[in-house]
Amino acid sequence: MPRTKPSPKWRSGCPLNASIEMLGDRWSLLIIRDMMLGGARTFKEFLGSREKIATNILADRLRRLEAYGIITMQRDPGDGRKVFYLLTRKGIDLAPVLTEMVLWASAHERTENQVLVREMQKDKLGFIAAVKKRCAEQTELLAKSSTDSHK
Amino acid sequence: MPRTKPSPKWRSGCPLNASIEMLGDRWSLLIIRDMMLGGARTFKEFLGSREKIATNILADRLRRLEAYGIITMQRDPGDGRKVFYLLTRKGIDLAPVLTEMVLWASAHERTENQVLVREMQKDKLGFIAAVKKRCAEQTELLAKSSTDSHK
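ok -> structure tokens follow
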């Protein structure tokens, strides 16, 4: 895949370490979860998460995720003052990571959302493929509508 | 699976959130990586990681990982003043999470250790099974040798 920007400096060349530097905090993966599984796209929607992220932390994490190329910010086609966020291909490719983290926790801890967990357990690859397809369609649709409004 | 201890209080019932609360920091998964892939077992071996973890952070993370039941501390059978750390079943079950994080970063960033990455890409399930088997054998062997020394 073409790489137009130089990679940021990581603490080491280990790919796991690179993942951790991008995602290893208490909030980034929750934002990605809300986009990927909950269809959240706006600042207000992210603020509504059950874990009650603070506005300053949310703003910081959105900036970081955008800088890492995991999400992209778009102007609302109908109202240029409004912005929304979409997962990039790189962000969408996190579906297997999130799925394995959900399966691990649900196997070893008392957690909720057993309907989702059973769906993952029943057909993990099918679940991941469906999530990726839905996210990609949403990204394409919104990117298209944004382009259309500028014609 | 029997649960003898109550789960800690999470920010929400979401299983992804539980994973993040246990692992969502800049160091815990690197310690698990060093145990899982590098065979590290002692404080000194963890300190030798390429990312240069500080001693106080390492001590804190080992305590946290033990409290979450991801690793277990054992006395060295030959010298009771020495301790070493082993992955529990719960810790070993993180192999798919680490694998997906490695594959994701190596697909989207410039990273090293391409031999390992190719091995994962070629046969992901086989790789995970082999890692789990090796860790389980190590845990059993060391636990056995620890028990033997107390007979």
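Helices of chain A lie at 15-23, 28-36, 43-47, 55-67, 89-92, 95-108, 114-122, 124-149.
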